[in-house]
C-alpha cells in the first residue's frame, strides 16, 4: 500500500499593482479607470528615449502606408475613415500637420538655395555700328541702383501714393480709435515702418540692399504658402458644409474631407518641388531629359485638379453635373480666400515678420 501523497499548499497570488493616481488595479500599461500610464518620465533617460524612438518609427511607418493612397487614390482615405478603417492610416489632423511642416521646410530650403549668392555681375546691352553689343559689367556692392520713376515714394520715412503722403510715423500714422494704443504702436512701428524700410531698400538702396530686400520678400512669400493652406482648413470645411447642407453631414465630416484634400495639396507641392529640383540637377548633364521632366510637372499640375474633382465625386456621391458645378463654385470661392491670404502674406513679407 502506497503512502498517500499530500498536495503542497498553493502559494498566495500577489494582488495586481494599484494605480498611483486612483488606486484601481493595474492590468496593463494604462489604468482602465483614469487612463494614467504606469510609466511616467521619472525613470532612466534611455528608457524615455526608447519610447520616443518607438513612437516616431510607428508614425513613420503609417505615414508611408498613407502617402501612396493619399496621392494616387482620390477619396480612399476619407471613405475608409468614415467606414471605421482608421488604425492603418495616420489620423487626418496629424497627416496634414506633418505634411505642412515638411512642405514649409522644403520650400524654405528650396528658396534659400535659389538665393544662395548675390549677383556680382550684370549684362549690359548697347548698340554700336547698327549692331547690338552684349557686355558683362561688375556691379559695385555699394553703388546706388538706377533711379526709378517712383523712387521717392518710400523715401524720408514716407509712403506716398499719387504724390500724397499716405503714411508717416511722426506726422501721419495709422489711427483706429477703438483699438488700444499698444496695438496701434505695433501696427505703425513693427508692420508699416518695417514695410516702408523694405520698399525703400528695394527702390533706393544699393545693388546689395536691393537683392537682400528682394530675397527676404520672396522667401517670406513662398515659405508662408503651406501656412496659408493650413489656416484655411476650417474655412474650406465650412464651405463644404454650406454646399452640401442637404447631405446632413456633421461639420467634422467636412473637416476630415478638407484635411485630406489639403494634405494632398501639400504633398503635390512637395512632388512639384522634387521634380523641379531633379530637372535643375539632371538637365545640365543630360539636356534631353528636360522635356520628360516638363511633361511630368505638367501631369502633376493636371492631376492636382483632377484629383480634387474625383475626390469630391466619390465622397459626396452626387451626379457628375452637380459635382462639377459645385466643384467650380468651390474652386472660385477658395481662390478668392487664397488670394486674400496671399495678400496678407505679401504684407507680412514686406514687414520682415
Describe this structure in words.
Helix content is 59%, strand content 7%. With 353 residues, the chain is mostly helical. The radius of gyration is 30 Å and the shape is extended. 17% of the residues are buried. Residues 116-125 and 139-151 have low confidence and may be disordered.
Biggest sheet layout: 2 strands, antiparallel
Helix content: 55-70%
Tell me, what's the shape? Answer: extended
Give the uncertain stretches in residue-range form. 116-125, 139-151
Amount of beta strand: 5-15%
With strands numbered from the N-terminus, the spatial order across the biggest sheet is 1-2
Q: Which structural class best describes the helix and strand composition?
A: mainly alpha
CA radius of gyration? 30 Å
- Strand-and-helix sequence, N→C? HHHEEEEHHHHHHH
How widely separated are the two ends? 98 Å
Number of helices, where a helix is a run of at least 4 consecutive DSSP H or I residues: 10
Give average pLDDT, whole number.
75
Number of strands: 4
Amino acid at each position: 500500500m502506497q503512502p498517500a501523497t499530500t498536495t503542497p499548499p498553493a502559494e498566495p497570488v500577489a494582488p495586481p499593482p494599484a494605480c498611483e493616481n486612483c488606486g484601481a488595479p493595474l492590468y496593463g500599461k494604462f489604468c482602465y479607470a483614469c487612463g494614467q500610464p504606469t510609466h511616467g518620465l521619472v525613470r532612466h533617460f534611455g528608457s524615455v528615449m526608447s519610447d520616443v524612438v518607438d513612437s516616431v518609427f510607428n508614425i513613420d511607418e503609417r505615414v508611408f502606408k498613407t502617402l501612396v493612397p493619399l496621392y494616387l487614390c482620390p477619396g480612399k482615405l476619407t471613405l475608409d475613415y468614415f467606414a471605421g478603417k482608421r488604425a492603418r492610416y495616420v489620423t487626418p489632423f496629424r497627416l496634414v500637420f506633418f505634411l505642412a511642416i515638411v512642405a514649409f521646410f522644403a520650400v524654405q530650403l528650396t528658396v534659400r538655395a535659389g538665393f544662395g549668392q548675390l549677383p556680382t555681375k550684370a549684362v549690359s546691352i548697347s548698340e554700336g555700328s547698327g549692331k547690338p553689343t552684349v557686355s558683362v559689367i561688375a556691379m559695385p556692392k555699394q553703388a546706388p541702383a538706377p533711379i526709378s520713376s517712383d523712387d521717392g515714394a518710400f523715401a524720408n520715412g514716407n509712403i506716398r501714393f499719387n504724390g500724397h503722403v499716405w503714411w508717416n510715423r511722426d506726422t501721419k500714422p495709422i489711427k483706429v480709435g477703438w483699438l488700444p494704443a499698444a496695438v496701434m504702436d505695433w501696427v505703425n512701428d513693427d508692420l508699416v515702418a518695417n514695410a516702408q524700410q523694405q520698399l525703400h531698400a528695394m527702390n533706393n538702396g544699393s545693388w546689395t540692399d536691393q537683392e537682400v530686400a528682394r530675397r527676404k520678400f520672396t522667401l517670406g512669400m513662398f515659405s508662408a504658402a503651406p501656412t496659408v493652406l493650413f489656416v484655411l482648413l476650417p474655412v474650406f470645411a465650412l464651405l463644404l458644409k454650406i454646399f452640401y447642407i442637404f447631405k446632413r453631414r456633421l461639420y467634422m465630416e467636412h473637416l476630415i474631407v478638407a484635411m485630406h484634400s489639403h494634405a494632398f495639396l501639400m504633398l503635390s507641392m512637395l512632388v512639384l518641388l522634387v521634380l523641379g529640383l531633379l530637372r535643375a540637377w539632371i538637365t545640365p548633364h543630360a539636356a534631353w531629359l528636360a522635356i520628360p521632366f516638363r511633361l511630368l510637372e505638367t501631369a502633376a499640375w493636371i492631376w492636382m485638379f483632377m484629383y480634387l474633382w474625383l475626390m469630391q465625386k466619390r465622397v459626396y456621391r452626387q451626379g457628375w453635373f452637380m459635382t462639377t458645378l459645385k466643384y467650380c463654385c468651390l474652386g472660385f470661392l477658395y481662390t478668392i480666400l487664397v488670394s486674400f491670404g496671399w495678400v496678407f502674406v505679401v504684407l507680412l513679407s514686406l514687414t520682415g515678420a
